[in-house]
Amino acid sequence: MSGRGSKRQIVIADNPSLRSAQFSPSSRRIRLQTLVRLRWLAVAGQTITVLIVGLLLRFPLPLREAAVLVGALAAANLMLSVWFPTTYRLGPKSALALLSFDLLQMAALLFITGGLANPFAPLICVPVIIAFASQPLRHSLVLIVFALVCTTVLAFSPYAVPWYPGEELRIQPIMQLGVWCAIASMMMFAAFYAYRVSHEATLLADALAATELVLEREKHLSQLDGLAAAAAHELGTPLATISVVAKEMERELSDDDRFREDVQLLRSQSERCRDILRRLTSLSAENEEHMRRLPLSSMIEEVVAPHRQFGIAIELIEKGDRTAEPVGNRNAGIIYGLGNLIENAVDYAKSKVTVMVEHNAEWVAITIEDDGQGYAPDILSRIGEPYMTKRPREDERAGGLGLGLFIAKTLLERSGASIHFGNRDNGDAGARIHIEWPRSVMEARDSK
C-alpha cells in the first residue's frame, strides 16, 4: 500500500468542479482594498512619527523631503481608490509593482533619516512579508532581492539620525554590518515562514472545498431514488386524467375508423406510462429502508463489492454476531471514505486485501490490511496532507498521498472516527489502516 495516490484521485482531478477548487494562482490574488488600507496605516504611522520627531522632540529632520515622501504614498493611495473598485484583485505583476513602490518609499524615508541607524529600519521587511504571504514565489523572490539591495544602500546613507542639536549619534561600521545582517536574516526568515503558513492554509482550504463537493455529490447520488419516487407521485395525477379521457374518447369514437387506431394507441401508451411510474414507486418503497437504514454488514459489502473485479482477493472477516451489529442511517461520507481506502489497498496490494470488522457494545472498528510494500517511515508522519505530489519508483516504499486520501480521512473523521495509519506488525509486509467509531455515534449518525 505504498504510493497512495489512487484511481479515485484521478477521477477527482478530472472532475471540472473539483479541479476548480484546487490550488491555483488565482486563489492567491490579493484584494487591492486590503493593500490600500495597509498603506493608509503606513501613511498615518509615518506622519505621526515625523511630527513627533520634528515638532515635539524638535530633532533636526528634513521635514520637507519627508512630507513629500509621505504625501507621495498618500497620493498613490487616493488614485488607486478612485481608479479601481473596492473588489478589484491584483495580479502578481501589479501587486509586485505596488509593493515595490511601498518598499522604495520606505527605503527613501529611512535613507534621509539615518539609514540603518534609524530604529525604524526593520520596517523595510513589511512589504516583503506581505508579498510572500499573498503572491507567487517567483514574484516574491524578486521583491526580496530588491529589498536586500535597498537595505544595502541604507548602510551608506550620508544623513545622520535625527538627534539632539549639537550632538551626533555615530554608529560604528561594525554595528552597521550587524544591523544589516539582523534585518536581512529577519526578512528571509519571516518571508519563508509567511509563505509556508499561507501556502499550507490555502492548500488546506482548497482541499476542504473539494471535500465538500465530493460529499455533496455522494449525497446527491443517494437521493436520486427519492427524487424518482417524488417524480412518479407528481406525474401520477395528470397521467390518470389522461387515461380517463383516453377511455372516454375510445368509447365515443370506437365506431369511427378515422380515429379508432389513434385513440387505442393513446390509451395503450398512457397505460404503459402508468406501469413505468408504478414500478418506480414500488422500487423506492422496496429500497427505502435499505437506503435510509443500513446494517454494518450491508454497508461494508456495499463498499467492498465494486473492488472485487481487479484480480485482488478481498477477504472480509466479521468478528461479531450479525444479530447484534449496529444499524445506522446511511452516511455518504463514511461510504465514500471507506471506499477510497479500500480502493487504495487494492491498487497497491500484491494479491490480497483483508477487511476486518469488529463491534461490541461500546465501539465499532474496521481494519484494512494489504500485502503490498507498506508505508515508508518518512511518509507515515505526513499521511493525509493534501496535494502531496511525490510518487515512488517501483522499488521504493514511499508513496504519493494526495487529495483523494485527504478527502477520505476528512470525511471519516467528520463522522466521528479516529484513524490510525501504519504497517502490519505481525512480520508480514503491507500497510494497515485502523478506523474506529463509538458505537453510539455509528447508530445515531444521520446523513446530514
From TrEMBL:
UniProt keywords, alphabetically: ATP-binding, Cell membrane, Kinase, Membrane, Nucleotide-binding, Phosphoprotein, Transferase, Transmembrane, Transmembrane helix
Example GO molecular function: kinase activity
EC number(s) reported in the record: 2.7.13.3
Transmembrane domains' residue ranges: 38-60, 66-84, 119-134, 141-161, 173-195
This protein's name: histidine kinase
UniProt-listed Pfam families: HATPase_c, HisKA
Residue ranges of domain Histidine kinase in the record: 230-441
Native organism: Neorhizobium petrolearium
PROSITE patterns: HIS_KIN (PS50109)
Annotated compartments: Cell membrane
SUPFAM superfamilies: ATPase domain of HSP90 chaperone/DNA topoisomerase II/histidine kinase, Homodimeric domain of signal transducing histidine kinase
Membrane topology: Multi-pass membrane protein
InterPro entries cross-referenced by the UniProt entry: 2C_sensor_his_kinase (IPR050980), HATPase_C_sf (IPR036890), HATPase_dom (IPR003594), His_kinase_dom (IPR005467), HisK_dim/P_dom (IPR003661), HisK_dim/P_sf (IPR036097), RegB (IPR047770), Sig_transdc_His_kin-like_C (IPR004358)
Swiss-Prot/TrEMBL catalytic activity: ATP + protein L-histidine = ADP + protein N-phospho-L-histidine
Superkingdom field: Bacteria
